[in-house]
Design brief:
Jelly Rolls; Arc Repressor Mutant, subunit A; 2 domains; 4-stranded antiparallel beta sheet; globular
């Protein structure tokens, strides 16, 4: 679908400019993006299937054509059913101040967008509006391509601002129709889980049992497991295994031996590591070292 506008996969979560960025991606997600938050709006439009997005403790299983609005400061992580299967999506990032300026003459829309989006992330619009919003996203992609060196056309920047404004108006209508009060402890819970996640990534060779993590972060282990699962879609144990496998995959791809990567990434049993590696990546560690995929 309209693959002329494809963007390369990136792990960055920081905008390069102070207005907006738009991406069209069709790739096999490799679990490289951890739970994260940013200071801009993200409109996530899924065009194929196989994705669940966890946002602030709520998990949204998305169907093709559905959209999510993720507000500034909201912790989120995409969960792909099969990390080897390509998934198509369009992602729009909008700087919060830029959105505010675009809606300067539309105070009601501006007010709606400024309200907390938590619990209202799934963009509830009718089919006709959804199709229009998708066309606006691809319109932005077309103008982005025309704006590349050698392809700029007069009025491109102004047209893009109009399209972003239209999208913001539709999003503000969605938020106005779904207003509610946000639970008081949501922000604190997401911060706690982020701290645990970051600790896991920095201490892969240490004891990362749920009991140990709960002790380190002064939490009840059942509470930790429940909050971690709600926010990331994984238990702490599943997250530890995934992080260790990702680190081992990166080491092997960079030239390290499989046995060495196994030990340095916190695995104590090579056969268990081998089985987990094949289950996650669908290939042997040796195939990664040789730059190919085997089944």
């Amino acid at each position: 679908m309209k693959h002329a506008y494809l963007s390369a996969f990136e792990t960055r979560q920081v905008m390069k400019g102070n207005e907006y960025e738009v991406f069209h991606r069709v790739d096999a997600y490799s679990a490289e993006v951890p739970p994260h938050r940013h200071d801009f709006y993200e409109l996530y439009c899924l065009l194929s299937d196989g994705v669940t997005m966890a946002v602030e403790g709520r998990r949204y299983a998305l169907e093709p054509g559905e959209m999510l609005l993720i507000g500034p400061g909201e912790t989120h992580i995409p969960e792909f059913k099969d990390p080897r299967r390509p998934v198509e999506r369009v992602i729009l990032w909008i700087n919060a101040d830029f959105a505010d300026r675009l809606l300067e003459d539309l105070p009601e829309a501006r007010r709606a967008l400024r309200e907390d989006t938590r619990g209202r992330n799934r963009v509830a619009v009718d089919r006709e509006t959804g199709a229009l919003m998708q066309e606006l996203l691809f319109g932005l992609l077309r103008e982005k391509r025309r704006g590349e060196p050698g392809g700029a056309e007069p009025g491109g920047a102004e047209l893009c601002r109009l399209m972003v404004t239209q999208l913001l108006i539709h999003l503000s209508r969605h938020l106005s129709a779904t207003g509610h009060t946000v639970p008081a402890r949501v922000e604190q819970r997401s911060t706690e889980v982020l701290r645990v996640y970051e600790y896991i990534g920095a201490h892969l060779t240490e004891d990362l049992s749920v009991s140990r993590l709960a002790e380190l972060f002064f939490m009840d282990k059942n509470t930790l497991t429940r909050q971690f699962k709600r926010l990331t879609g994984m238990t702490p144990g599943e997250c530890v295994r995934r992080c260790r496998l990702e680190a081992a995959h990166a080491m092997i791809a960079a030239g390290a031996g499989a046995q060495s990567a196994c030990a340095e990434c916190g695995f104590t049993d090579y056969s268990a590591f081998y089985r987990a590696f094949r289950q996650m990546y669908g290939t042997k560690p040796s195939a990664v070292a040789e730059g190919r995929v085997e089944s």
